[in-house]
Amino acid sequence: MEACVTPYPKTTEPAEVAGGVWKPFPERLNAVPFRISSGSIPGVSDETFQEDDKLWKKHVKAYKRTNKIIDSGRYRNIMDMNAGLGSFAAALESPKLWVMNVMPTIAEKDTLGVIYDRGLIGIYHDWCEAFSTYPRTYDLIHANGVFSLYKNSCSAEDILLEMDRILRPEGAVIFRDQIDVLIKVKKIVGGMRWNTKLVDHEDGPLVSEKILFAVKRYWVVGENNSAAPQ
């Protein structure tokens, strides 16, 4: 179990508080965690955290221009498949929803502790394996760089079938990845009867990273139902 436990940063003085002094929620969401400011996570500084937080606020604002019901209350159970520092969830913060932040076991940096420090919920998972959906499935799934991350580990088809299983009918997915990856994903989910819309990066069409919005259709054999991204 020791490998799965996220320890507090070590203290050097008797008066120091392990993990730093907690800020009240929701102020904790955007405050630099003590775990980062103390240098406990190699390669992640105060500036890195603040830049990431700012970037995801920008990304989420762009998402809402395409999917206008993200914060309407329709999506209550949300999952971020590659949560990083948890900034996507922090940018979405609303009493109408909650986000399960997943830290892939093959991620370059283990930042699950930062997610906890921000007052968010999170879990480790290998997306080459099934994800436990007890006690609920999800209304919206965010997949940032997931398919590039796992391209040498398991097939995109296997990951997409697992996403289809844990996503509710008429639920939505936001894929963020390189254009060649998203073209492959778009073809596969089309065969799964998902509706899709591919859009440029918010910084313009010259950026190779694109966004694919998808909706899992509610359908039965013999019917031609559809639900396009709103």
From TrEMBL:
InterPro entries according to UniProt: Put_SAM_MeTrfase, SAM-dependent_MTases_sf
Keyword field contains Phosphoprotein: no
Swiss-Prot/TrEMBL keywords: Glycoprotein, Methyltransferase, Signal-anchor, Transferase, Transmembrane
GO cellular component terms given for this protein: endosome; membrane; trans-Golgi network
EC number annotated for this UniProt entry: 2.1.1.-
GO process annotations (BP): methylation
Species name: Vitis rotundifolia
Enzyme class: transferase
Recorded topology in the membrane: Single-pass membrane protein; Single-pass type II membrane protein
Top-level taxon of the source organism: Eukaryota
Annotated compartments: Endomembrane system; Membrane
Keyword Nucleotide-binding among record annotations: no
Name listed for the protein in its UniProt record: Methyltransferase
Molecular function (Gene Ontology), one example: methyltransferase activity
PANTHER family: METHYLTRANSFERASE, SAM-DEPENDENT METHYLTRANSFERASE
Family, as annotated: Belongs to the methyltransferase superfamily.
